[in-house]
Amino acid sequence: MNKNSSNIMALAPNTSNKRETVCIFGTGDFGRALGQKMIQSGYPVVYGSRSTQISSLIPKDAEVLSHAEAAQKAAIIIIAIQRQHYNFLTPLAEVLRGKVLVDISNNLKLNQYPESNAEYLAQLLPGSKVVKAFNTVSAWALQSGTLDASRQVFVCGDDVEAKQMVMNIVRALGLTPLDKGSLLAAQEIENYPLQLFPMWKFPIFLSLGLTAFFFLYCVALDIIYTYIYENKDFSFFIAITIPNRVCPVMALILLALVYLPGIFAAIIQLYRGTKYRRFPDWLDKWMLCRKQLGLIALAFASLHAVFTLVSPMRAFVSWRTSKGIISQVLNNKTEPLNHTNAWLSDSYLALGILGYFFFVLLGITSLPSVSNSVNWREFRFVQSKLGYLALILCTAHTLVYGGKWFLSPSAYKWYLPNIYILSLIVPCAVLVVKFVLILPCIDKPLTQIRQGWERNPKYSE
Ligand code: NAP
């Protein structure tokens, strides 16, 4: 009993720890939302405003004073004002001398000004200690309470003590500060909220372009061709048949595109005989979005699995099955089981299931919570070795399924190859070149280059 109560005492917060007053310049959306959150966290808040009249929107318990009066009451001043109005601060330079100014501003465009807003503020008020923080948090998230401790607040500044003071406030608000170093990092931090899925752009545009191309390709060969030459209307193929052709093709090609840049990188390193020269920009960018390409590929593979599972429910499939049964009944002849076909269909299904299993495993290990819990070697083993295994299985799945069309002349409608033939070009090329690269006579020099050996060292002794 006693032991428990002493534990409770030890865990009880230290309520005597009074928080320092924080001053906020600006009673706009962000100033009010941040002030409210600070008051909830126990900070006395004083606003510096052009108008000292208290409006009903201002958080209860907050004081509103003129800028100069408010600044005198606190060591930390949060500037919740747009950058274009910063020059009103210049006459306040003396009052603000030695104070910590927190710049929370954002811009409307990437790299809108030559210097970051925080650096501009530091130039205007050289006697103050400027810290950049909170700009990646929105007023809406502060007000609606959708912020949680996993939300990072990027902080940077030249004065270590000032930065610590701001990081303490961030922690007190239940958020996680992330020290990004000196004020030089401010421009990068200001650009974060303006970025729109930067790593996803290329994979998404590529997927949309390829999907549109393959979709139209299938429409032309499976619907238009059949309509013109066989006078059959298969327009309903648009709903399930064609998507179920496009999805596996996209999954396979995108998975191969995850491994293709690694192949290019190896060839370039072998050719140059060094790893100390930068790859071309396009290759760097491609390598950086491999995870996104892989995840989109996984989404296509999952759609393919769902489309395949619903296939038996389709009217077209049950019509075809019953047509086969009726023709056997009418001819009074039971078709014997075609063992070759049985083997082929079981094999491609098994290869597809195994390929999908490894595909999902790759997707799971790319989640930050999982990838953070494995070491670099384990991560590489899964992403590289098991990734190639998934590519081999998925390529074999397509080969076994679509292989029969390779030599059949009916597969070349309008002299165009079947979509499965097209889908195998990139994965087969990747696998063949990878096989060549792992031959000992090539793998050995490549491994040496990756360990730092150079064919023509620039700085030889
Ligand atoms: P806002 O609603 O337009 O408020 C800005 C405040 O600045 C005004 O309420 C006003 O306060 C003050 N002000 C306006 N003109 C002034 C001038 N000529 N001289 C001095 N003070 C002036 O803007 P906000 O949305 O709160 O944004 C404020 C800052 O926070 C911006 O830099 C923005 O980039 C940044 N930010 C906003 C969000 C967000 O979600 N809104 C998120 C991150 C960062 P008084 O009337 O009290 O003087």
TrEMBL record:
One of its GO terms (cellular component) is plasma membrane. InterPro entries: Fe3_Rdtase_TM_dom, NAD(P)-bd_dom_sf, P5C_Rdtase_cat_N, STEAP_metalloreductase. Its cofactor is heme b; FAD. Gene3D superfamilies: NAD(P)-binding Rossmann-like Domain. The chain crosses the membrane at residues 204-229, 249-271, 292-310, 347-365, 386-407, 419-442. GO terms for biological process: copper ion import; iron ion transport. It comes from the Eukaryota. Residues 249-394 form the Ferric oxidoreductase domain. It holds the Pfam family Ferric_reduct. GO terms for molecular function: cupric reductase (NADH) activity; ferric-chelate reductase (NADPH) activity; metal ion binding. SUPFAM superfamilies: NAD(P)-binding Rossmann-fold domains (SSF51735). Residues 21-107 form the Pyrroline-5-carboxylate reductase catalytic N-terminal domain. It is a multi-pass membrane protein. The keyword Ion transport applies. It is found in: Endosome membrane. It catalyses: 2 Fe(2+) + NADP(+) + H(+) = 2 Fe(3+) + NADPH; 2 Cu(+) + NADP(+) + H(+) = 2 Cu(2+) + NADPH. Its main location: membrane. Keywords: Copper, Endosome, FAD, Flavoprotein, Ion transport, Iron, Iron transport, Membrane, Metal-binding, Oxidoreductase, Transmembrane, Transmembrane helix, Transport. Belongs to the STEAP family. This is STEA4 Metalloreductase. It comes from Alaudala cheleensis (Asian short-toed lark). The gene is Steap4.
